[in-house]
């Protein structure tokens, strides 16, 4: 009489998201919904210029405005040793500028007032005298000899270089190139973008002088990390700090870093002894908080005539903005860039990465990706496309020859990653069939005769998700495990808390499904809570598709601990020895007599009312999970486009996505994740990029200039699945939240470049705006770099 | 995104609204749909002393086709009113084609046709449409009403010729000389984006002869581009592949595009030329099919 797992909302059930009930009724609880008694409001004054020495700041006029309670400047922060704070990448970042401003939008002063209107008025009344300095807006300007040194605040910082890092076997790679039949080269740029979650960043700091406790409600994807950081920076005892992340209106990596606004609101509350709310406006969010990408590539592949890849060389040049604040926990300077080519059998590889400071916003966050994996896979798939063409080979065939075969797992990549499972060829086959690949070449030829330009782009990749194992990953020294705590109440209902932090992924829904799968407690009977550091177990938060691989595994493991205790209780209730007990979903029974059994609910009440002699009462436990490896989902995306030769407008005719993310906990949520990711991939390919003019003005400072696609433009998606369970994850799941964002963009670009291939076009850098496509198709030339911001009349 | 302090009045009649504008001597702004004004307030690009909200005035939300074929659009007619109305769509196909391309569906529920013309955005769809159709604006001030031809109304980027104490109460499109046909095409990077280039074409046909022709452009200059002179080459003629091509080239020549992140000046001219050709060729094909 095992329960029907789908009926109780277990593994594989497309259970409706329980969080949506409150969201669609306007009953969510976001930071800005929280109102505390006596609360003041904070607004930030941001620098209008990208690079300047601050000669003076006069706040006297601001204080003349009724309702202004406090104005903070860098000087006042410095007096408390808070003018600078550490970043997640072991650099420092200005909280409020003291000496100079180093990017447009940098925080210069803060006004705390009775309401945000007054605070904004007062910001406008502050007079700052700037002495402008030369502005550097890209890494090529930054590397010029004699370039203005942006980080003159740092000792031993002679130029603008942040790091120069390499990995791989250079000698073996050089040898592969020396012996190559064909060398294929590709220069690319992955433009800067901004994650732009619907909700901006914000905080309410509430310092209580009487208890000494600091409570901060804030928009953080990793509240426990914030607690640790606040303890370090503010020198407050950790037990007196409570960070609460309530509902988050999206994160996409943007809410991993610690921003000046949070820190200033904390100091403001300490000084005023009342709660201080700071809610960033949309412009502030777009121009100052963590961006993604902004990396240039020089890539080369050593190829054998028969299509085998013999070696690969990448050099990346990355733009980190004014402070190296990449949110990434690896020991590798450019994140997991060296996961490039992990799905291909590449014998020798070498990567050199150089990072530079520029007068742009800091960040380098993992925008819906694992620490530069998006750039890695985009570069990989554009290089693969170029290499197949240089060899005169079919795109799909070239991939088939080089993809790691099913019998090669576990496979050690040239850069040292261990991929452990997958059916890459099968995914490729399914996608080719769905897009109609076998008749496509003929169709393309015929279309060209009618003046229509058809193209198909493919992108295949595996990516490392689920940072991380404690050997290689940490944040500020804290190992990247995660945690779950499960309490089963006496009626068999339960509450689960984890160290992850939902921001749209549906943890409240899916974590309960894992409990249902492990214990047979219906998912509807399980409450899930996250985000309050006083109640949730310590965890590293949610980003990099790590929730299911790490926290999700912890949920399964804690449920198994509960089941082990329940088993002892069952033996006691059934008056048999534990060895004679069997488990089926939701129920223990006596092996010799299946009719004799007790449910998990029976065990729960007994844990509080009729436990065996010597057993501790209660039915609760916790688990900390340190994953043995990353998880390696595989994706094969196919995009078919038609390009209008007279305007350069390209229409998406079909998108096919084949995803293998292992066992799917909630297929509906997985599919929604893939569709969301594909939408962002389409966005990157078509319109979503952040750019700066020569003076360092951020152009995309509002949503008329920073374009995100709407439901109107976004194409439909056809999804397919392959399931290769993760061999080391307790329920066989792999990460999936970002696969489509990571692998998707190259499929779109490859499709448009394919449509124009016969004209000699090898590359169009993103965004592929119609004018750029038109220029490529009329000139037959590649389009590289950023679109110009504006030019003379 | 907190605007500066401003006053707010919600008059019940146009006369009251005009009196309020008059009393504030240029420091008051009319609030109709608010789809351009409110963002400007929030960004603090605009900081008027007083907002005169005309939404409470009865009788301004209308659009109609008079018996003689004249189209009248009231100051509070929303974009979506035009999008959803068959009578206007039938009478003025250019408006029918442009209405679903204005901004995005959310803006269209609130923003107004007349407000958009008054805003005089060089990328605005309705100023271009009105220019192609040769309409005029009815302005009401302390001394009563006056008609302002569209060419004299929109005179530059974000500049119209309303006096500070006048309200644009109605847009008027004259009756056609024959059967009115037309179309509107717009290249935008995303729904709601400002146009890279837009083309409004309106033709009055008597049989298969063009009795009147208007073409105007948006997004390809510092103001709405009036290409009616180039279009006038079609008057008295039948549409042919040859005159379509020459008019398209002539219209592209009067565009004043700038090179920017939406494309080079040459690219924008190419779009104008292509769109004029596509519209006129489409109209030719439709009329041939009908015949």
Write structural notes for this entry.
The complex is a heterodimer of chains A (793) and B (291). By secondary structure, chain A is α+β, with helices and mostly antiparallel strands. Chain A has 19 helices and 32 strands. In chain A, strands 3-7-1-14-11-12-13 form a seven-stranded mixed β-sheet. In chain A, strands 9-17-16-15-10 form a five-stranded mixed β-sheet, with helices on both faces. In chain A, strand 27 and strand 28 form a beta hairpin. Chain A is globular and about 85 Å long. The model of chain A has no long low-confidence stretch (mean pLDDT 96). Chain B folds into three domains: 7-56, 2-Layer Sandwich (Uridine Diphospho-n-acetylenolpyruvylglucosamine Reductase, domain 2); 63-173, Uridine Diphospho-n-acetylenolpyruvylglucosamine Reductase, domain 3; 179-290, Enolase-like, domain 1. In chain B, helix 7 crosses helix 8 (125-133) and helix 11 runs antiparallel to helix 12. The N and C termini of chain B lie far apart (56 Å). In chain B, the strands form four sheets. Chain B has a five-stranded antiparallel β-sheet with strand order 4-5-10-6-7. In chain B, a hairpin with a 2-residue loop joins strand 12 (197-206) and strand 13 (209-218). The interface between A and B is medium-sized, with 37 and 27 residues.
């Amino acid at each position: 009489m095992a329960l029907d797992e789908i009926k109780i909302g277990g593994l594989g059930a497309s259970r409706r998201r329980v969080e949506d009930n409150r969201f669609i009724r306007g009953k969510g609880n976001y930071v800005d919904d929280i109102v505390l008694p006596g609360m003041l409001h904070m607004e930030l004054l941001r620098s209008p210029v990208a690079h300047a020495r601050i000669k003076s700041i006069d706040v006297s006029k601001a204080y003349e405005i009724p309702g202004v309670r406090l104005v903070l400047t860098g000087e006042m922060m410095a007096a408390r040793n808070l003018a600078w704070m550490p970043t997640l990448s072991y650099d420092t970042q200005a909280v409020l500028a003291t000496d100079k401003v180093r990017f447009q939008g940098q925080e210069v002063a803060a006004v705390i007032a009775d309401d945000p209107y007054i605070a904004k008025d007062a910001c406008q009344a502050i007079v700052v005298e700037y002495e402008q300095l030369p502005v550097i807006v890209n890494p090529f300007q930054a590397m010029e000899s004699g370039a203005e040194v942006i980080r003159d605040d740092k000792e031993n910082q002679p130029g603008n270089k942040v790091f120069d890092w390499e990995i791989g076997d250079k000698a073996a790679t050089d040898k592969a190139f020396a012996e190559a039949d064909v060398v294929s080269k590709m220069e690319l740029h992955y433009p800067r973008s901004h994650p732009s979650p619907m909700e901006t960043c914000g905080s309410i700091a509430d310092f209580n002088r009487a208890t000494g406790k600091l409570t901060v409600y804030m928009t953080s994807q990793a509240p426990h990390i914030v607690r640790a950081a606040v303890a370090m920076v503010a020198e407050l005892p950790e037990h007196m700090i409570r960070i609460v992340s309530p509902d988050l209106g999206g994160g996409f990596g943007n809410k991993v870093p610690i921003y000046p606004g949070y820190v200033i609101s904390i100091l403001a509350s300490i000084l005023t002894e009342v709660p201080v709310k700071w809610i960033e406006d949309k412009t502030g969010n777009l121009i100052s908080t963590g961006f993604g990408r902004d990396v240039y590539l020089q890539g080369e592949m050593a190829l054998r005539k028969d299509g085998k890849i013999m070696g690969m060389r990448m050099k990346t040049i990355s733009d980190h903005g004014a402070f190296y604040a990449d949110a990434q926990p690896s020991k590798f300077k450019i994140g997991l860039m060296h996961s490039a080519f992990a799905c291909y059998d590449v014998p020798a590889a070498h990567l050199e990465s150089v990072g530079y400071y520029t007068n742009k916003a800091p960040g380098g966050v993992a925008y819906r990706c694992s620490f530069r994996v998006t750039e890695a896979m985009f570069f990989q798939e554009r290089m693969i496309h170029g290499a197949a063409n240089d060899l005169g080979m079919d795109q799909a065939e070239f991939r088939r020859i080089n993809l790691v075969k099913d019998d090669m797992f576990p496979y050690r990549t040239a850069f040292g990653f261990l991929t452990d499972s997958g059916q890459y060829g099968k995914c490729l086959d399914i996608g080719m069939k769905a897009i109609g690949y076998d008749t496509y070449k003929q169709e393309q030829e015929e279309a060209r005769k009618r003046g229509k330009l058809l193209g198909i782009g493919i992108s295949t990749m595996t990516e490392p998700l689920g940072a991380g194992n404690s050997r290689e990953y940490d944040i500020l020294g804290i190992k990247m495990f995660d945690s779950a705590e499960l309490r089963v109440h006496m009626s068999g209902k339960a509450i689960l808390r984890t160290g992850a932090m939902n921001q749209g992924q549906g943890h409240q829904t899916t974590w309960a499904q894992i409990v249902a799968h492990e214990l047979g407690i219906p998912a509807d009977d399980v409450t899930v809570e996250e985000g309050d550091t006083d109640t949730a177990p310590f965890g590293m938060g949610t980003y990099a598709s790590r929730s299911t691989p790490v926290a999700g595994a912890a949920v399964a493991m804690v449920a198994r601990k509960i089941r082990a205790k329940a088993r002892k209780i069952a033996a006691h209730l059934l008056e048999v020895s534990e060895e004679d007990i069997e488990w089926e979903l939701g129920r223990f029974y006596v092996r010799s007599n299946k009719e004799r059994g007790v449910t998990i609910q029976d065990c729960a009440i007994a844990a509080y009312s009729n436990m065996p002699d010597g057993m501790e009462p209660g039915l609760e436990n916790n688990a900390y999970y340190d994953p043995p490896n990353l998880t390696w989902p595989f994706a094969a995306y196919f995009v078919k486009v038609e390009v209008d030769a007279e305007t350069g407008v390209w229409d998406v005719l079909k998108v096919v996505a084949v995803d293998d993310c292992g066992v799917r906990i909630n297929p509906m949520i997985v599919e929604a994740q893939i569709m969301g990711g594909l939408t962002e991939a389409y966005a990157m390919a078509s319109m979503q990029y952040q750019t700066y003019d020569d003076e360092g003005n951020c152009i995309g400072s509002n949503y008329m200039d920073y374009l995100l696609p709407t439901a109107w433009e976004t194409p439909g998606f056809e999804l397919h699945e392959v399931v290769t369970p993760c061999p080391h994850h307790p329920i066989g799941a792999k990460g999936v939240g970002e696969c489509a964002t990571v692998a998707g963009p190259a499929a779109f670009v490859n499709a448009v470049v394919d449509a124009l291939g016969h004209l000699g076009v090898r590359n169009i850098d993103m965004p592929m705006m119609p004018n750029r496509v038109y220029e490529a198709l009329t000139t037959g030339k590649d389009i590289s770099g950023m679109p110009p911001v504006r030019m003379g009349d | 995104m907190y605007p500066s302090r401003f006053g707010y009045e919600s008059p019940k009649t146009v006369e009251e609204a005009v009196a309020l504008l008059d009393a504030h001597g240029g420091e008051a702004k009319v609030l109709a749909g608010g789809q351009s004004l409110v963002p400007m307030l929030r960004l603090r690009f605009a900081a008027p002393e007083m907002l005169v909200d005309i939404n409470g005035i009865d009788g301004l939300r209308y659009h109609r086709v008079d018996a003689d074929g004249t189209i009248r659009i009231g100051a509070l007619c929303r974009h979506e009113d035009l999008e959803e109305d068959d009578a206007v769509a039938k009478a003025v196909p250019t408006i029918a084609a442009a209405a679903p391309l204005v901004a995005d569906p959310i803006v269209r529920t609130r923003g107004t046709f007349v407000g958009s013309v008054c805003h005089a955005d060089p990328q605005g769809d309705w100023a271009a449409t009105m220019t192609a159709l040769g309409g005029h604006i009815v302005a009401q001030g302390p001394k009563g009403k006056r008609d302002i031809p569209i060419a004299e109304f929109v005179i530059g980027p974000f500049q119209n010729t309303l006096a500070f104490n006048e309200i644009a109460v109605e847009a008027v499109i004259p009756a056609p000389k024959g059967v009115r046909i037309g179309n509107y095409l717009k290249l935008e990077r995303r729904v709601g984006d400002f146009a890279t280039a837009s083309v409004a074409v309106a033709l009055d046909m008597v049989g298969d002869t063009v009795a009147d022709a208007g073409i105007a452009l948006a997004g390809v200059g510092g103001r709405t581009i009036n290409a009616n002179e180039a279009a006038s080459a079609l008057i008295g003629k039948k549409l042919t592949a040859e005159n379509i091509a020459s008019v398209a080239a002539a219209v592209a020549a009067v565009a004043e595009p700038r090179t920017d992140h939406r494309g080079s000046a040459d690219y924008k001219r190419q779009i104008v030329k292509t769109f004029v050709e596509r519209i006129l060729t489409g109209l030719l094909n439709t009329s041939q099919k009908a015949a």
